[in-house]
Design goal:
The structure is a homodimer. Chain A is of the alpha+beta class. Chain A is built from 5 helices and 3 strands, in the order H-H-E-H-H-E-E-H. Chain A has a 3-stranded antiparallel beta sheet with strand order 1-3-2. In chain A, strand 2 and strand 3 (75-80) form a beta hairpin. The interface between A and B is large, with 40 and 40 residues. Chain A binds a DNA duplex through residues 23, 25, 39-41, 49-59, 71, 73-76.
Chain lengths: 100, 100
DNA sequence: TTAATATATGAATATATGTTCATATATGAA
DNA sequence: TTCATATATGAACATATATTCATATATTAA
């Protein structure tokens, strides 16, 4: 079975999805969430970022379904959306660690 | 073994690597090269892009090691760098095709 | 209700990036 | 060498994007 080239709409969706991994702040958030579910304030504190910066980036991560969230009390707790996210992080790390 | 959070330099390298997948033109080039090795002119023709656009993007893809190339005569032939590239494309496609 | 805490949103700004045009470099043919 | 073909590069411009500041919304406690 020959691999096929995705149609235009898939290319756009895929580029938006993968582009979301292309920012240091978002990556830091994702690596934190790989360890455990966290609230917005905890993410901001651990990464030494402003709350508003974190909220803006979480909105992007939510929209592209890299994370999911649940509300509890006044807090909102975020975690990685599914295993694809961690797989991409792992493959990416393998790639950049390759020498030559 | 607990997963660790990459250090600053790794985060930067990883974000630059993954960012490279975040553009429709580069994705189209990668999907073409997933099928077969191709020269610059052939890529431009198949994707209906200007040669100079393709060259600029190939430079990015080379720099981040998503593709490799070999020179033959006056041509330069490009192919995917290693299996990581196809893996990321495949996982990404799986993700965007998930409904819900 | 009022106050306090947690999170989200909108506008503004500075920076990054993709494409185009013009042109340079490289290789092979004549 | 000169010409033609293949590819790469640099500058310019328009668009996209990350962060900040100010503020809004939501929830709980008093």
């Amino acid at each position: 079975m020959e691999p096929t080239i995705p149609v235009e709409e898939e290319i756009i969706d895929l580029s938006e999805f993968l582009k979301t991994f292309g920012d240091p702040t978002r990556l830091r958030i994702l690596f934190l969430l790989r360890e455990r579910e966290l609230g917005v304030h905890a993410i901001a504190e651990q990464l030494e970022l402003q709350q508003t910066t974190v909220s803006h980036q979480l909105k992007v991560l939510r929209y592209l379904r890299l994370v999911r969230y649940r509300k509890e009390g006044r807090g909102v707790f975020y975690s990685l959306s599914d295993d694809h996210i961690e797989q991409i992080l792992n493959i990416g790390m393998e790639h950049i660690q390759e020498q030559i």
